[in-house]
Please model this.
Amino acid sequence: MAQADGAPQPFKLVLLGSGNVGKSSLALRYVKNDFKSILPTVGCAFFTKVVDLGAASLKLEIWDTAGQEKYHSICHLYFRGANAALLVYDITSKDSFLKAQQWLADLEREFPPGEVVVMLVGNKTDLSEEREVTFEEGEQFAQSHSLLFMETSAMLDHRVTEVFSALARELLQRVERKERQAQRGDARLTLNQGPRGPAKCCAH
Model:
């Protein structure tokens, strides 16, 4: 999806979740194909990446929010104008899974249902022996709230690209649906406003 000047259309994506679940690691792995131990994000970090989907491309503006509780209130400022959100939890931490659900509730207070594309992401599958949240638990919660769902490992680069690509495809499909609906609406408007001849009366 490109703008009139040919540049890919930008979409704002926010990464949400508690501290140490790997939000920054996912972003860094996706944008720069790099992985390293990262200090906790202070406030918010920002990345951009153009996603090529074949027939179209779009630009993801990725806002990586701080997960520590003391930053929770200011993170809501970054919700504004968001088109999509990744709710990230650590599969070895049940608490982080519950926190992701709280973030979803926060999102739902800010946006009408269905306005933002949301994906639930269980990170750190490389630590599966320490797993506290089963794949089925994550999948069931996602399905019950109409969320996309995937498990990843930023360390092993497992399904990281797939997460962002799936979000981008869903964003693109939503834009295309809206455009088709708008075109149908314009067509109906044109039909309803067709030329009218002078009123005829057959009674004499």
Q: What stands out?
A: The radius of gyration is 22 Å. The helical segments are 23-32, 72-75, 94-110, 135-144, 160-192. Strands lie at 9-16, 44-52, 57-65, 84-90, 117-123, 148-151. Residues 9-186 form a domain with the Rossmann fold fold (CATH 3.40.50.300).
